[in-house]
Amino acid sequence: MSSVSWGELKQAIKEVIKEEKAKEDEPLPNEGDITKNHACACPDCYCGIIDRMNKTSDYKCGNCGLPLGNEAFVKKIEKCPNCGHVEPEKIER
C-alpha cells in the first residue's frame, strides 16, 4: 500500500468534487426528447402513433401511404421521411 501526502489527498478530493459538480451542471434532456426517443424506439408506442396519425392526418405519402399530418406540416417537408417520395396525397374522409 502506498502512502499519499495530505496535499495529494486534498487535490484528489477537489478533482472528484469538481467532476461531480460538472455532472450536476450538465443540462438534463428535455422531457419531450425522452418521450420522443422512447416512442420511436418502442414498437408498441410507434405503432400507436402511426394508428393515431392514420385517423387524424389530412395527407399521406402518395407512394408508401405513411400518414404525413395536416397541410401546414406537409408544406414544411420536402419528401416522405419513410420512402423519399415527393408527392403527398390528400386523404378523403
Give an overview of the whole structure.
The protein has 93 residues and is mainly α. The chain has a domain at 34-93: Herpes Virus-1 (2-Layer Sandwich), CATH 3.30.40. The chain has four helices and three strands; from the N terminus they run αααββαβ. The protein has helices at 6-25, 31-41, 43-56, 71-76; strands at residues 59-61, 67-69, 88-90. The chain has a three-stranded antiparallel beta sheet. A hairpin with a 5-residue loop joins strand 1 (59-61) and strand 2 (67-69). Helix 2 (31-41) packs across helix 3.
**What is the architecture of the domain at 34-93 at the second tier of CATH?**
2-Layer Sandwich
Range of helix content:
40-55%
Largest beta-sheet details = 3 strands, antiparallel
Proportion of residues in extended strands: 5-15%
CATH class group of the domain at 34-93: Alpha Beta
Radius of gyration, Cα only, in angstroms?
25 Å
Q: Which structural class fits the helix and strand makeup?
A: mainly alpha
SSE topology string: HHHEEHE
Low-pLDDT residue spans: none
- Tell me the distance between the termini: 78 Å
How many separate helices? 4
What's the β-strand tally?
A: 3
| Spatial strand arrangement across the major sheet | 2-1-3
* CATH level 3 topology of the domain at 34-93: Herpes Virus-1
Task: Give a brief rundown of this model.
By secondary structure, the chain is mainly alpha-helical. The chain is 55% helix and 10% strand.
